[in-house]
Amino acid sequence: MQHVLDAIQSNADSAVFAKLAIPETYRAVHVLKAEQEMWKGVATKDKDPRRSLHVGDVPTPAVAPDEVYLAVMASSINFNTVWTSIFEPVSTFGPLARLARESEWAKRHDQPYQVVGSDAAGVVLSVGSAVRNWQPGDRVTVHCNHVDDQDHSAHDDSMLATNQRIWGYETNFGGLAELAVVKANQLMPKPAHLTWEEAAVNALCNSTSYRMLVGRNGARMKQGDVVLIWGATGGIGAYATQYVLNGGGIPICMVSSEEKAQILRRMGVQHIIDRSAAGYTFWNGDEHDENEWRRLGKDIRDLCGEDPDIVFEHPGRSTFGASMYVVKRGGTVVTCAATTGFMMEFDNRHFWMRSKRLIGSHFANYREAWEANRLVSKGMINPVISRVFPLAQTGEAAYQVHHNAHEGKIAVLALAPTEGLGIADPALRAKVADRLDWFRR
Ligand code: NAP
After folding, report:
1. For 304-315, how does the pLDDT look when each residue is reduced to its tens digit (9 = 90+)?
2. Hey, where are the domains in the chain?
3. Ligand 1: which of 146, 157, 259, 339 to mutate, judged by most atoms within 8 Å of the beta carbon?
4. I need a surface site. Which of 114, 197, 203, 351 has the fewest CB within 10 A?
């Protein structure tokens, strides 16, 4: 791929990119179907992504008429790559086999390997015959909403499409690689003021938080809303915190260390709870402890004088009962995940008697992803990178996310030889410079 990198670094024009040879194989982070049973009997925390994520060459698939080949400069670790690598809650090879039954082109996805990764920033190398709005040489970032838009179920909100999938998780040929195959409708312009690695970390988490809080399909936060954000310096939490601050809300940010609290103070957050210091025990074995829910509610009232209008929920089983309890009468819990367990319990009496609402939310439709990227491009939402790893160390990067040993996002360099490349709008960068290092270690 050196010839591709040379063209990118010399800012070659579209005609040059269009003539570049697409290699027959490419370096990619992948899991193996033959290893999908490897963690049988192993506790979740002991399943080690460093053993199941392999870095090596895989064959280059053909590109469908509505797809492009992307030279990936950088990508990022999302929690879904952790799920894939530990084969929980299910092996992703099952969904790939189901996808393969949908069409001739979809058959490509069922391989003995899966190239993972649901974020990417890079350069379009060549486009399928039906692609109109993008051309070789375009600098782009990729959102992970993989939808067959010929299906009528995709037409209103593409997240409601019956065949909606997350690219690089429920599809093959994802972004943690030097080359990726991407549907043209997943492409968005790369924010020009950002480096490759900064541009690569946003799309999945930023779009998810946008839909949960801002878009018309989520909690529809308004000015003055008090929003409790679990994991406020984690991947999605760090964008949620920015949306609440930008939108005139009042964030109540939950974290588990003083270092994370300091990041939030740099961002301008006033109300922070350290859940480790507070020592909440919402569960006593299999029993909820309602007194602990009340203690959390009191801590929130002591901080800002009110109950939360919205709870940004994703830890799942460990916190869900508390979230449903502390949210204000008529308030909304919006959830997109269940990291600590997906069988949730809550006290329905508090829920119905106080007319609360619960909204399930998954990634973002095309429009929401585009709007979220637009805000990044304007410097209004900022990347939350704490560390950058080379592709060869993706396993270690995923291990850190698996063990909550990171803040914000971990970026991964693919073709980009070093950090700091790819900036095309230094003037905007200078304007937001103080926000680009909030999370850096
Ligand atoms: P992340 O970067 O690991 O952040 C998660 C945060 O949760 C951590 O920073 C941690 O913060 C907090 N946390 C962990 N265990 C907790 C517990 N027991 N109680 C309370 N807080 C806890 O992960 P992420 O990228 O934000 O993703 C979070 C979850 O959302 C994952 O399950 C992911 O798969 C899911 N997700 C879903 C979508 C979707 O479209 N549906 C999109 C993105 C992510 P502290 O330790 O500081 O409290």
Report:
1. 999 999 999 999
2. 2-202+365-437, 219-360
3. 339
4. 351
